[in-house]
Design a protein that fits this description.
By secondary structure, this protein is mostly helical. Helix content is 63%, strand content 0%. The chain is elongated and about 65 Å long.
Length: 107
């Protein structure tokens, strides 16, 4: 009766997994030729969600040590063509939305 209060015993901060980023990039061969699951995961693992800032800034030089100059340019160029979808990927990743739901939301 009356307002109910729940108790939280512990909260754990979890770094975004990057599953959405990896899936979106690796499955879009037109925009990101040569960047499959392994390369996309390697870039995510190295930069985490800071990768979105690098891509938004067009910083291919920061990605080149992992991908090489050509593929780093492909990734940055492809990211620019995503425009609104890129912003949606960032937001959905931040809030932990899984790839299956997120891909439907962005489509």
């Amino acid at each position: 009766y009356g307002p109910q209060l729940g108790q939280i015993r512990a909260a754990t901060l979890v770094r975004p997994s990057g599953r959405l980023f990896v899936r979106a990039i690796s499955r879009d061969g037109e925009r990101f030729p040569g960047i499959g699951t392994t390369r996309a995961q390697r870039v995510w693992d190295a930069h985490g969600d800071a990768l979105f800032d690098l891509l938004d800034a067009g910083d291919a030089t920061a990605l080149a040590p992992l991908l090489g100059d050509d593929l780093a340019a492909v990734l940055v160029g492809g990211w620019r063509t995503l425009d609104g979808a890129a912003k949606a990927y960032r937001w959905l990743t931040r809030y932990g939305v899984g790839p299956a739901v997120a891909m439907k939301a962005v489509a």
